[in-house]
Design a protein that fits this description.
By secondary structure, the protein is mostly helical. It has one domain. The chain is 63% helix and 0% strand. The chain contains five helices and no strands. The longest helix is centred in the middle third of the chain and has 15 residues. The radius of gyration is 11 Å and the shape is globular.
Protein backbone atom coordinates (compact mmCIF):
# COMPACT_ATOMS: atom_id res chain seq x y z
CA UNK A 1 0.00 0.00 0.00
CA UNK A 2 1.15 3.54 -0.72
CA UNK A 3 -0.38 5.67 2.03
CA UNK A 4 1.02 8.90 0.60
CA UNK A 5 -1.37 8.40 -2.31
CA UNK A 6 -4.29 6.73 -0.57
CA UNK A 7 -4.64 8.66 2.70
CA UNK A 8 -5.31 12.08 1.11
CA UNK A 9 -8.04 10.55 -1.07
CA UNK A 10 -9.52 8.71 1.90
CA UNK A 11 -9.61 11.93 3.92
CA UNK A 12 -11.45 13.72 1.12
CA UNK A 13 -14.04 10.95 1.09
CA UNK A 14 -14.36 10.99 4.89
CA UNK A 15 -14.89 14.76 4.93
CA UNK A 16 -17.86 14.28 2.61
CA UNK A 17 -19.09 11.05 4.18
CA UNK A 18 -17.57 10.23 7.61
CA UNK A 19 -19.23 6.82 7.80
CA UNK A 20 -18.03 5.74 4.34
CA UNK A 21 -17.72 2.02 3.82
CA UNK A 22 -18.78 -0.81 1.56
CA UNK A 23 -19.35 -3.53 4.14
CA UNK A 24 -20.21 -1.47 7.22
CA UNK A 25 -20.44 2.13 8.41
CA UNK A 26 -17.03 3.52 9.28
CA UNK A 27 -15.09 0.92 7.28
CA UNK A 28 -12.88 3.51 5.56
CA UNK A 29 -12.02 5.25 8.81
CA UNK A 30 -11.27 1.90 10.44
CA UNK A 31 -8.94 1.09 7.54
CA UNK A 32 -7.01 4.32 8.13
CA UNK A 33 -6.27 3.22 11.69
CA UNK A 34 -4.11 0.48 10.14
CA UNK A 35 -1.80 2.93 8.40
CA UNK A 36 1.59 2.66 10.07
CA UNK A 37 2.88 5.14 12.64
CA UNK A 38 5.81 6.03 10.38
CA UNK A 39 3.30 7.64 8.02
CA UNK A 40 1.35 9.57 10.65
CA UNK A 41 4.49 10.93 12.34
CA UNK A 42 5.61 12.49 9.06
CA UNK A 43 2.17 13.75 7.98
CA UNK A 44 0.94 15.75 10.95
CA UNK A 45 -1.60 17.77 8.92
CA UNK A 46 -3.32 14.63 7.69
CA UNK A 47 -3.24 13.14 11.17
CA UNK A 48 -4.94 16.26 12.53
CA UNK A 49 -7.58 16.07 9.81
CA UNK A 50 -8.30 12.42 10.52
CA UNK A 51 -8.49 13.00 14.28
CA UNK A 52 -10.91 15.90 13.76
CA UNK A 53 -13.17 13.79 11.54
CA UNK A 54 -13.02 10.87 13.94
CA UNK A 55 -13.79 12.92 17.03
CA UNK A 56 -16.52 15.12 15.62
CA UNK A 57 -18.33 12.77 13.26
CA UNK A 58 -17.65 9.20 14.29
CA UNK A 59 -16.96 8.97 18.00
CA UNK A 60 -19.72 11.39 18.91
CA UNK A 61 -22.22 8.68 17.95
CA UNK A 62 -20.91 6.24 20.57
CA UNK A 63 -21.11 3.28 18.17
CA UNK A 64 -19.17 0.29 19.52
CA UNK A 65 -18.07 -0.67 15.99
CA UNK A 66 -15.76 2.36 16.10
CA UNK A 67 -13.54 0.91 18.86
CA UNK A 68 -10.44 0.84 16.60
CA UNK A 69 -11.00 4.51 15.79
CA UNK A 70 -11.39 5.36 19.46
CA UNK A 71 -8.14 3.55 20.28
CA UNK A 72 -6.39 5.38 17.45
CA UNK A 73 -7.61 8.77 18.68
CA UNK A 74 -6.49 8.01 22.24
CA UNK A 75 -3.05 6.98 21.00
CA UNK A 76 -2.45 9.95 18.69
CA UNK A 77 -4.42 12.88 20.14
CA UNK A 78 -1.58 14.50 22.05
CA UNK A 79 1.11 13.84 19.47
CA UNK A 80 -0.86 15.81 16.87
CA UNK A 81 -0.92 19.02 18.89
Amino acid sequence: MYPEHIVPLALLRLKAEPNAGELYDGELANALTNVGPEYWTTHADELSQFLAIAESDLLSRGDETHAPIQNFVQKWRFSAQ
